[in-house]
């Protein structure tokens, strides 16, 4: 019976009242179309052909087949085969480039009988990757989450476990964990996260600091960060600004290291500064810290009498101890 069927006709079968074979017929797409439209076949038939030819058949030809196999589908054809909107129930193979597939394409390719997630890479919008849980992202060769300028990824909790790379296209907002992924592209990123996550990067080892290239860092709940001098300096540099209020809590030595006769370094913008002991300052340093920093720890002043007597009453009276050295007799009268 198969010998009578060609892509254009069915030979002697056409005039038969019915056609019965001893087994299902194995046909290509054109042959299945010919026999369905030109013969009263009461035996079943299977279709095996290239996906392009299979997808060109009518729904009736396809749904009346016992089995349909579409071979060598393109990725675009795999989408139609996977969706199977007419309920054909076919199987299919894919023969196409499997690089940089969308999530939907990856799902369709995995639905084939000859390829899976381990054979492909995914490149799709970050929001799509975060929202779609069906793919086996871990098995994929690579997963790239793309972005556009203004995207805020901080609410995309699943992204870190699914993507290994984020492509920055414009200014994008990330969490600390997202910033630890491989970042590519011409854009920039800022970090918004909790205090514990931010401080987890500030170990003193630059290799641990994945947020160093952020344009800015902010605490997610608008809470004040508690930092040491070293942590602040690791976090804030020429590339990165801190957009959240902060306080400095550190050793007296570290805090004293920021104070000069003309400035107070990182202490100046802190909401408050707390040391583990009273600071030992000269007159100029005491004046600088009293005027420019909110020091909640005490301080002692030790300096030449001339320098001490040149301080304001407020600076002097707020000190815990004041020692004026090498006074002249005239200065001793004032002292």
Biggest β-sheet: strands ordered side by side in the sheet: 1-2-3-4
Largest sheet: 4 strands, parallel
User: How many β-strand stretches?
Assistant: 18
Number of helices: 15
Structural class: alpha/beta
Distance between the amino and carboxyl termini? 124 Å
Helix-residue proportion:
25-40%
Mean pLDDT: 96
The amount of beta strand, in percent, is 15-25%
Shape: rod-shaped
Give an account of the 3D structure.
With 335 residues, the chain is of the alpha/beta class. Helices cover 28% and strands 23% of the residues. The protein has 15 helices and 18 strands. The protein has helices spanning 29-38, 51-55, 59-63, 75-83, 103-110, 126-131, 159-162, 176-179, 195-199, 229-235, 252-256, 283-292, 305-309, 313-318, 329-334, and strands spanning 25-27, 45-50, 67-73, 91-94, 121-125, 142-146, 165-167, 171-174, 182-184, 188-193, 216-219, 225-227, 241-242, 246-250, 273-275, 279-281, 299-304, 321-325. Helix 4 (75-83) crosses helix 5 (103-110). The chain is rod-shaped, with a radius of gyration of 37 Å. The model has no long low-confidence stretch (mean pLDDT 96).
Brief write-up:
This protein is of the alpha/beta class and 335 residues long. It is built from 15 helices and 18 strands. Strands 1-2-3-4 form a 4-stranded parallel β-sheet.
